[in-house]
Give the backbone structure.
Amino acid sequence: MDLPLHPFLVHFPIAFLFGALVLHAIHLWRPNWICRVVSLWLLGLSTIFSIFSSISGEWELIKAGRKAYPSEVIELMNLHETMGNIITWGSIIFFISWIYLFFNYMDDKRIDKLMFAFLFLFVGLVFFTAYLGGTLVWIHGVGTPNLI
């Protein structure tokens, strides 16, 4: 049985990133309620899973390339792939940068506000990419088994 991993794996970076945003917002609102590094490590988990999601997405793209999809679906797949690559590489850079800034400017609270802005941007990008992926599956049937 050829089980697709991509639909299973993509939910982890989405959930970890959204959790990082919410918990970082709580930290900015009430600094004593939550540890400062929780959102940093959630971003790290999101980064790890986004790498695996990107790899499994490439495998699914190869399988989808064997079928004859219309050009609009191919364009949507390419946009989804591009956005996934931007998120994967961007989250790697963002995670490493946040670790660097955290350890070198530990007492500077402006870093926390800057990282919240970047988290907000990344969550928006991830939701847009997830919307594209959902459109590919639920509207165009990409990656679904052909039962006919």
Observations:
- The CA atoms of residues 62 and 78 lie 12 Å apart.
